[in-house]
Structures are given as structure tokens and as C-alpha cells.
């Protein structure tokens, strides 16, 4: 040690210091170069690890809407995991566990590959409270592993209680109505971001110049984006602005949007069975609000993408009590997407009115509004149309079927059993857009479909011009035989097509006087002989396919018999 100190003291001279610098410079240069290479290698290694982790993390997709979603206990929901773009001839080990606090609820191990990249596992939680899904994906070939933790809630559903914000908005709405009695109330469950859907319905409603004491229209929205996430301030301001413009919106303490199962996939029904449906919740809360504050004969539930012929409804007669009318589906086409056995312990769904729309009498609305009066909540899952029918199952309420409610023929496939054709009898047409609303005939408010435009049928009496009269076909004498000439044009012959000719006496049931199969004939001559004077309607109907039902394209002309 002393020798080293002396050597250090001797080297402290200027000459010795210069010598030392000349001797040690190459060493210092080498020392500087070595850390730079080491640091570069370290950074490259770190970058490779990051890239590896990012590639590995992109391989695991969690399709189930779990994050920040509340599920109900004792109901199956579908756990759906997928390896995205798996390497060929590679195997992946997947470990899945669900933890509630310190208790492991579910724990299992699976092998996935490019041939079997998905895991589909129905799960049912019995414990309530916060849960954590832990998934660990490992590449058997040594490519690393990916770990994800997702938190979700399992809670017993409760009765929806209006918040202070909802109570205030409902109070403001009621102050704008000087009357509380009307013949029919029309409601359309919708969501805050769906204003572009509401505007065409409002425009149609304004064109009818409908008296509020005859019919009222309300849109039903929710206070929450989903679960307990409230609308933020800007959304509330948008809501209040639109409400003050139209005063036709009922605010409820329901989820505003079914984000958790909004994807158009068959798994949506599993997810919808385990969470609260915004549409089902809004329907129930609207029944409560309307039964408390309005007197009405009927309520019509439509979609915010549906056309409703309000004038036709008011001109028609319906049962005043125990009415549940719609386009009834049974057996349910939802099977096996939504398991009736898993959800309710029943073999199949009951007969129900499809979601296009349905009509209820006032007593049925009040019955539904009181179903939670005991303090026990109703199950408000999806799909709303089926669940509503389940609510009515214990009661003596007949299901009344109508073909006048259907899905728009331009939108759905020809194989859709709920597809219909627009006519003067169309009551509710589902899946319509702004363009379809522009096809409403201004003279009578009837919506025309493309099928009405691309098929042409002209008919008139052959021979001399008839005497002019306040009718489309003119005037004929009672007992006189006249030939009615019918010429169809642009009629599809891809399927069996029938032309029907009806004569409809005023106040009497219609009857068929002639029919012809196409393309066997290119035109049809019908001999009409009407014995009794009066006003009649001559109607020509095109029926495509084997079934004959009200809803096919038809053309009517009036006839005066003297």
C-alpha cells in the first residue's frame, strides 16, 4: 500500500502526468468502447423482448365482454377466448382461472392450436362480488407466455329506482302536457346516440298532424352508458337540449346501450342472458311511468328503426282489454342460441311477438307495471321480446297474431320468416332507414316498399268508356256483366306467382272472384256481375310463393254500382 502511494506521488509531476495520459489513453478508449457495445447489445435485447411480448400479447383475444360488466349469479355466460393468427404446427397451453376474493371459483387447463384456436366455455358464478379472470397463454414451442387479468362483477339484480336526475327530467316532461288522456301511446326504446333514427319518425309523426289527445309518441332512453357508468355532463347536456326541442323523451334509470352484447354474433344471446338488457329495462320502466301518469286505451311498442301507421291504427278496432298483439313466433327461432333450459329451466320459449313491435291494452300495461310491487325484481335480460312474453305467461292473456307487422322486404333475406310486403294494411314495418321513410305516400301515410314500385298491375273495364263517376273504375249497372281486363307487368316468375282478384262490398267480407297462375297467362279478363247497388272496391293482389297472407303487394280501385 505504501509503495502504491509513493508511486502515485511520484507520478504527480507534470512530465509523469503526460506520460501517464499517453499510456492510459488507449485503455480509456477501450473502456469507453466496451460499455457502448454492451449497452447497444442490451438495448437490442430489450427491444427484442418487447417486440416478442407485444407479438405474444396480440395472440390472445378475449371476446367475452367482461371488463367492468356486471353479471347476475346462477346464470350461464359464455367465456370465449381465441389465439389470434396462431403459428402453424404450434401448440399453446392455456390456463384459465376465476377468483372471487381468495376463493378459486374455476380453474382449468386447455391445449389450443391453429386447428383449434378458440376456447368456448359456459361459466356460471354462484358467489356475488368482484371477480377476476386470470388467463395465461404459453407457447409450447418456447415463444414465451402472455398473462391477462380482467375484473368483473357478479351481483343480484335489484329493482330500478329513478335517480334524482331521472325524476327531474320526468317531472319536466309531464309539465309540458296539459292533458293526460289519449287513445294510444307509442313508445320506442332508443339510445342517446341514436338521434338520426329518431328524426325520421318525428318527421313522419309531424306530417300526420296528429292530435295529442288521439296519439302520443315517446322515445325511451337510459341514464347510464352501461351498468353503473353514468352519462357524462356533455351527454346530459345533449339529452336536455334534444328533450327541450321535442318533449318526447322518457328518461329512465336503465343502461342506455347494450354494449356488452351488441355484436351481431350468436354469442350475443349468451351474454345478453347474463346481464341487464337496456331494451327490456326501458320497456318495464316505460310501463311504470305511463301507467302512473297517463290514461290511454292502448300502448304500441315499436323500434327506433320502425315505421308505424298511426292513422291506420286509429281507424281500426282492437280489443279494449287483455290484448297482446304482434307477429307471433313459435317455436322460437332463437334456439339454441339462447338456452331456455339454462336460463329458465323450460324446454322452449313461449309464443311471443317479435321485436318489430307489438300492441298492448291498458290493463296489460298496468299489470306489467305492478309486477315488481312485491319488492322482488323481474328478470330483465335479453332478448326483450321473448322476456316480455315470459312475464305474461301465468296470466290469461291471449296471443293475437297479425301479418301486418313484419320486417322490411328490402332489408332482410327472402328466407326470413318475418319478412313481409308493404300494403295499405301495413301497421308496423321493421328495419327501415331514412330512405324508406321517404317512400311514405303523402296522401294516406302508407309506406311503399321496392316491391310496390317494380311490379305494375293495370286494370280497367274492356270496351267502351264507362260513364264518368266519382270512382276509379267508373259506374256499372247492377246485374250487368262487364269484362275487367287485368294486365300485369314486370312480375317475377322465379317462384309460383298468383294473381287474385277480390271484390270488396262496403261493410261486407271480401270474396275472391277469380285467380290465375303466372306465367300461364300474361293478362286476365274477369267477368264481373254485381247484383246489388253500392260502392265496391276491386282489388288485385300478387302472391309470390305458396303462402297466401295479407301483406302482399296489392292494387285497389273503387267501383260504383247503380
From TrEMBL:
Membrane topology of the entry: Single-pass type II membrane protein
GO MF term list: hexosyltransferase activity
Residues spanning the signal sequence: none
GO cellular component, one term: Golgi membrane
Pfam families: Galactosyl_T
Primary location class: Golgi
Region annotated Disordered, chain positions: 1-21
Keyword Transmembrane helix: yes
Keywords: Glycosyltransferase, Golgi apparatus, Membrane, Signal-anchor, Transferase, Transmembrane, Transmembrane helix
Localization per Swiss-Prot or TrEMBL: Golgi apparatus membrane
Family: Belongs to the glycosyltransferase 31 family.
Protein name (Swiss-Prot/TrEMBL): Hexosyltransferase
Organism this protein belongs to: Guillardia theta
Taxon lineage: Eukaryota, Cryptophyceae, Pyrenomonadales, Geminigeraceae, Guillardia
